[in-house]
Design a protein that fits this description.
The chain is α+β, with helices and mostly antiparallel strands. 57% of the residues lie in helices and 17% in strands. The two termini are 48 Å apart. This is histidine kinase.
Length: 412
């Protein structure tokens, strides 16, 4: 995560820029110094030739100093500098004037000696070097300023990322506005608008679903009450079971809506397999005789670590599919290791489990009516909400659906 950070990449970019600027400044200033020394040496050679002509034609020291002053050369008075040139004195000079050029690391100088004194002259080329150093310093300041400015501009991305993560986890009350007049600020404002629209859509969806469920439950309840008034016990029982089934389907849709909107918080505890199956069979409207006729159940009782409502809903859908699509025999439930398996005789799934786990998936390879195509999708969603997984295999004309890692312990 850190290696792919934008801040790290920008920091590396600016470090490389500073190193490159330092290298460029070093070589540029060094070349400028070398170039200037060569120019000064050539210029001083011309000065020296002129001074020799003045001396030849009887020029004195005052005339030479006036000439050097007009050329922009100044006498150096710094004692520390002058000490370095004492070894260039010509001993026992009794007459005349000696002028020579002395090249040092820090520049080129004109050395002038008479029988009574000696002087050292140089121009102000160091001021030019100072200007180079000043420009380099300001260039470094600009790079550092840009670095701080860019980092300050992208730091709000961390806040924006945290708010987006909260929103992805289901928290709708977030604030991600950033007071910047750049792309990041524009991005935060657009995301804020998107959050407001999504929240409005979610609220309207909740109201719509609640209204539909309310409108559906009202006639179902009335129908259930009316069915209770029928004197024929057979018809009465059938109608009541139909209305119970419709009411159970509405409750299932409510659970699916909570899962899809991530508003459901699983409560995982230890429950016995017997209680899970009892609730699943109740939802399937199966009595004890039908259970013994259609199912083979484990003889031992087991403890499952799960969310009771969610696992019951998943097991109910698996049992319903196993009954609906079995070709012969009974549907078997068994415990294998820490997994719960549901087996039935039948043809293999025409598509992969991943395809069947898609919402509203339709089987176009067979002529069977697959309903709304929500069965495996509901199973997968309810299991994933608990951190569980489903697996599917087909062997020897047997379909095996496995809920992985749901067993807690065996009750003896």
């Amino acid at each position: 995560m850190i290696k792919n950070s934008i801040i790290v990449k920008i920091s590396i970019l600016f470090v490389v820029a500073i190193i490159g600027l330092s290298a460029f400044s070093y070589y540029f200033i060094r070349e400028e110094i070398h170039k200037e020394n060569l120019e000064n040496q050539l210029k001083y050679n011309q000065f020296l030739a002129t001074i020799n002509q003045l001396v030849r034609f009887g020029g004195n020291v005052d005339l030479i100093e006036k000439y050097l002053y007009e050329l922009g050369l100044w006498q150096i008075q710094d004692e520390n500098v002058l000490e370095k040139f004492e070894n260039h004195l010509t001993p026992n000079l009794t007459s005349g004037i000696i002028a020579k050029i002395i090249k040092q690391e820090n520049g080129v100088y004109l050395f002038l000696q008479t029988p009574t004194e000696w002087k050292l002259y140089g121009d102000l080329h160091k001021n030019k070097l100072f200007n180079y150093y000043l420009i380099t310093f300001f260039a470094f300041l600009v790079v550092i300023f840009l670095f701080v400015l860019v980092i300050k501009s992208i730091l709000p991305l961390k806040t924006l990322r945290k708010e987006i993560k909260k929103f992805a986890n289901g928290q709708t009350n977030i604030n991600c506005k950033i007071n910047q007049n750049d792309e990041i600020g524009e991005l935060s404002r657009e995301f804020e608008n998107a959050v407001e629209k999504i929240n409005a859509l979610n609220q309207s969806r909740h109201l719509f679903l609640r209204a539909i469920m309310h409108e559906l439950k009202t006639p179902i309840t009335k129908g259930r009450i009316t069915a209770e008034m029928i004197e024929n016990s057979v018809y009465k029982e059938r109608l009541c079971s139909v209305f119970d089934r419709l009411n159970s389907l509405i409750n299932e849709f409510a659970k699916i809506e909570e899962l899809s909107s991530r508003n459901y918080c699983p409560n995982k505890q230890n429950y016995t397999l017997k209680d899970i199956l009892h609730q699943a069979f109740t939802m399937l409207l199966l009595d004890e005789t039908q259970i013994q006729e259609f199912f083979i159940l484990p003889s031992e009782n087991y403890v499952l670590h799960c969310d009771f409502e969610m696992l019951t809903l998943a097991v109910k859908n698996l049992l319903d599919n196993a009954l609906k699509y079995k070709s012969r025999g009974k549907v078997e439930l068994r415990i294998k290791g820490s997994d719960l398996e549901i087996l039935n005789f039948g043809a293999p799934l025409p598509y992969t489990l991943k395809d069947h786990s898609k919402p509203f998936f339709k089987d176009t390879k067979s002529n069977k009516n697959g309903g709304l195509g929500l069965g495996i999708y509901i199973v997968k969603s309810t299991l994933e909400s608990q951190g569980l997984a489903i697996d599917y295999t087909h062997s020897n004309d047997v379909n095996i659906f496995t809920i992985k890692g749901v067993l807690a312990q065996n009750l003896k």
